[in-house]
Amino acid sequence: MVKGLHLLTVKQVESVKPGTTLSDGGGLTLRCGARGNTRWVLRYRPGPKMNQREMGLGSFPATTLAQARKKAAAARDMVAAGLDPIEEAQQAAEAAKAEAQAAQAEEMTFGRYADEIFLPTVLPNFSNAAHIQQWEATFRKHAASLRALPLAKVTRDDVLAVLRPIWTTKSVTATRSRERLERLFSHATQNGYFHADNPAAWRQFDATLPAPRKLTRGHHASIPHDEISPFIAELRTRQAESTAALMLEWIALSACRTGEARFGTWAELDLNRMVWTIPAERMKMRRDHVVPITERMAVILEEAKRRHGRDVAPEDWLFPGPRKGKPLSEMAAIMQLKRMNYGQYTVHGLRATFKGWAATCTEFARELIEEQLAHQLGAVERAYMRVSAVERRRPMMEAWASHLDGQDVTTGAKNVVTMRR
């Protein structure tokens, strides 16, 4: 035994008192805190002219006296060899982590990475439920052939096999699928799961596939506000056999977005106050949006409740689809327009129809109109809207309901205009 080492006995270590420090020699000490938490510490100098450092060797009694001495001896040997034990331990930990990541990456399939790592980081950024469904469809449906492959071994040819069958027939779907795949592989590269060139980057295909069409987005075609009441009248004749027709009138009455109506549940309704609160996660502006329920909207709710055939539960959809437990599809309202020969217009355009009517045919304040549409308001307008904003909007939305019903809001006279098809 080297002189000045191994000064402690097991009994001394076991009977250490709070607030004391025991030395075993050679820089090894046992420190017992005021609350009795005890740990081994080794003090050493990495070099002659370097500051003293302290290295934790574990807590007691998890680390025994004999184990602490063994760790301390190994650390002293490193110092004697010109190494810093702390830095060596950090490097060993990083190497072990890298090795574990490499092993994990080798086992990780494309499908697992998409479902468990990539999509959970991307999807919370979207408020539009349709966008979420489209992203999920890319990785579960369009890229189905990749799901069982080891992520680290996916090649450019594997991705090409996904894109080629739909590149010219479904150009928008194919273009967006490639962009989403490229993002996934970029994400995997930055997180240590993929180490080759991005197999979904456009440079991998620009000499193989035709250049993708540019995805342009214009205004949503809207029914003119002076021609909306005949549309609503015809829509109501379809509602006895179509839940989509019922939802489409709800969208028109509330000036909401399609996804806000499709994924609406009975829990979001307060029928005492007659308001519908759309939660922030479904809103584009990421804040709760409260919509006044008009008399006609209340009638639609009664009909929707009757169609359930039972007492509705809070989690039930307002407008359930034909598949049990599922809401109506995104295409349901669009197809309803087409069946009525209104296919040149869009569902989203009903919001523009409302805004055109409110801005040109009424004296309602601009901030009320924008708040109903859940648009971002300026600071002054937000301050104006803080108090009782819903009740300020209710007369406007009842007037809008009357307009949809074919009534002139100033005289109460019928104002139905026959549209030319």
UniProtKB/TrEMBL annotation:
GO biological process: DNA integration; DNA recombination
Lineage summary: Bacteria, Pseudomonadati, Pseudomonadota, Alphaproteobacteria, Rhodobacterales
Keyword check for Nuclease: no
Pfam families xref list: Arm-DNA-bind_3, Phage_int_M, Phage_integrase
Protein name, per record: Integrase
Domain Tyr recombinase: residue ranges: 218-397
Family affiliation: Belongs to the 'phage' integrase family.
GO molecular function, one term: DNA binding
Provenance organism: Salibaculum griseiflavum
Alphabetized SUPFAM superfamilies for the sequence: DNA breaking-rejoining enzymes
Keyword Transmembrane helix: no
Keywords: DNA integration, DNA recombination, DNA-binding
